[in-house]
Amino acid sequence: FDSVPFLPRIFSFLDIVTLCRCAQVSKAWNILALDGSNWQRIDLFNFQTDIEGRVIENISKRCGGFLRQLSLRGCLGVGDSALKTFAQNCRNIEQLNLNGCTKITDSTCYSLSKFCSKLKHLDLTSCVSITNSSLKGLSEGCRNLEHLNLSWCDQITKDGIEALVKGCSGLKALFLRGCTQLEDEALKHIQNHCHELGILNLQSCTQISDEGIVKICRGCHRLQSLCVSGCSNLTDASLTALGLNCPRLK
User: Fold this and answer.
1) Would you kindly state one Gene Ontology biological process term found in this protein's UniProt entry (predicted)?
2) Is 235 left (phi over 0), alpha (psi -120 to 50) or beta?
3) pTM (2 d.p.)
4) Following DSSP, what letter does each residue of 52-95 receive, concatenated?
5) Domain residue limits, the chain
6) Which CATH code fits 40-245?
7) What pLDDT, in 10s, does the model give residues 91-103?
8) Run of H or E residues at 156
């Protein structure tokens, strides 16, 4: 049965838990199950309490250039060192979810900038040690970014946003929930550079006023979704600007 020609095809449809079980059946199945080409998309959320840095390092070494999507959402044990090894080995990564990986710092973003130029989707939600330096790094090395989530990264300021959008002008979705230091000037930088932006979340960005929203409306005509919940400084002037300038808003 090990020599069945369509077995590799079957293995390509299996999730990582099933692959690991198959790897224990025989030597032949072990080779097939652990082939890097079967590990292009990995979601470790269900194993978050068991995932440590060495696990990520081992996965990255095995998957190498095959890995395209990785979710480490909620993996509190993963830090900068493991993600540096990951970035060095998985240079074709396109989607990376680090939501809730609270141990990571700017060092991780430097590694991604240096080695992962194909990155399109990055989720840094609640990575509270991330600063403007991370955004500068991403703008220099990850210029293909289309989707970036910085929610609750409350050290981010307008200077970080300015650096980010100058290098990542192709952003289509930007989530800034809870980035409480952001002011209207941050939105001016987005206005000037992110003309492809379709989704913008400013929930609880309490310093934003009508002035900032008007700027967004004038520069981001492709906007389809805008969240300003908790932005208590806004008035009808923002609604008027949205109505006049953002016909795609849903």
Assistant:
1) SCF-dependent proteasomal ubiquitin-dependent protein catabolic process
2) beta
3) 0.89
4) BHHHHHHHHHHHGGG--EEE-TT-TB--HHHHHHHHHH-TT--E
5) 1-38, 40-245
6) 3.80.10.10
7) 999 999 999 999 9
8) none
